User: Fold Caffeoyl-CoA O-methyltransferase from Rubus argutus.
Amino acid sequence: MEHTGSKNFLLNPNFLPNPILLQDEELNKYILETSVYPREPELLKELREATAKLPNAFFGTAPDAGHWSFYWLLSSPYCSLTIPHDGKITAIDRDRKTYEIGLPIIQKSGVEHKIDYIESPALPVLDNLLEEPKNEGDFDFAFVDADKGNYWNYHERLMKLVKIGGIVMYDNTLWGGAVAKPEEAVPESKRLWRRSTIEFNKSISADPRVEISHVSVGDGIIICRRIG
Ligand SMILES: C[S@@+](CC[C@H](N)C(=O)[O-])C[C@H]1O[C@@H](n2cnc3c(N)ncnc32)[C@H](O)[C@@H]1O
Assistant:
């Protein structure tokens, strides 16, 4: 059964960005300055700094969460920089402007040929991919960070597209800590996606097709390995 999608929170004037889970600012700064920034490739630093200036900078995956998951799981500094020359990334964003923020840096780093950018809502793209039997089990990795109300619908499709042994990651799975709070204690603008996140977390935890680890960095990340 399809889970119900949700409204775009940017249309909601009361939307508040999620706080990162680590509430101690000094400690957060300490972690970033000692363990994340010193090892960050120069081009990613440029990308992070370019994004930080934008009004929706809070959209970005937290640097410690990105470092932890992309660096360790993909065993390579941040995907496109070091995937093999003939490796491919399918990047889907319905707003081309978002892709264009990073495009000059992608071009400078010489990895543009590895990225197939598709300007579209993501679900129909995954459905199109699934129409081609050759795409089943063809992906090593997927990262989902948009349209939180549809996470389960992405998951169902990714369980066919990503190979057994492959990794899928979902960002913002602790929704600023709201998942553990009673609804009344959460600002109204966050309630809808709090509910869908709780529902998603419960469903994925019971899904025998994956092993999961719920990691409490940034805004929470669920990392799963497809096992069936
Ligand atoms: C939270 S941001 C992703 C940030 C990114 N992970 C980073 O670290 O920079 C969400 C992005 O998803 C896009 N988006 C929102 N809903 C979408 C949908 N249904 N399909 C595809 N893209 C969507 C938005 O345009 C936005 O660029």
